[in-house]
């Protein structure tokens, strides 16, 4: 793609985000989008596991772990350990010149620094859109004039119920960052093609960042002028 076409695609990406702006006064969970292929698959009913009991096994600062006894489709019973998480948001912050805001921080679970889009945990009964605005400003010092909902991802469906709601932020102005007391963060601004290369090369491993970057890239390519 030529430089002129790249700028046109980025401009189109910005226009697409503006076209799907969510009213900042709208509250509540984003609408889930279910994949429909010719209607609901009747075979899904044969896969359902029915919870018989649920016990709290461990209570943490951010999440709890419950143990469920479930009835399997064939009538047998099994145990399922499930991480109960309040959910989170993540923000693809796109500058006017087509750069994406990324944060670098040390992740103890992995034992290394990761590169991610800004994100954070939902407070109790917090509106995801309000949370996205808050986390973006706290982590990066950026305030968004417009926010658009992109998608919701389930991060680890095998053992956790965490959902991350991903937004795009546009019309960015600088304020003052205010990370949590135990957060130490560096902020980078990276051009979208460079970020996509890092994703495809495996240098970006954080799931929400991979999804957010690829959505932006897909929208930009769909908006490319036909040859």
Description:
The chain has 227 residues and is α+β, with helices and mostly antiparallel strands. The protein has 4 helices and 10 strands, in the order αβββββββαβββαα. A 4-stranded mixed β-sheet has the order 7-4-9-8, with helices on both faces. A 3-stranded antiparallel β-sheet has the order 1-2-3, with no helix packed on it. A 3-stranded antiparallel β-sheet has the order 6-5-10. Strand 5 and strand 6 form a beta hairpin. Helix 1 (3-19) crosses helix 4. The radius of gyration is 20 Å and the shape is globular. The N and C termini lie close together (11 Å).
Short overview:
By secondary structure, the protein is α+β, with helices and mostly antiparallel strands.
Q: Percent of residues in beta strands?
A: 35-45%
* Overall mean confidence score, pLDDT: 86
Total strand count, please?
Answer: 10
* Overall morphology: globular
**CA distance, first residue to last residue:** 11 Å
Individual helix count: 4
Topology readout:
Blueprint: H1 3-19, E1 50-59, E2 64-71, E3 77-84, E4 88-93, E5 99-107, E6 112-116, E7 119-121, H2 128-140, E8 142-154, E9 163-174, E10 186-191, H3 192-200, H4 207-222
Parallel strand pairs: 4-9
Antiparallel strand pairs: 1-2, 2-3, 4-7, 5-6, 5-10, 8-9
Helix pairs in contact: 1-4, 3-4
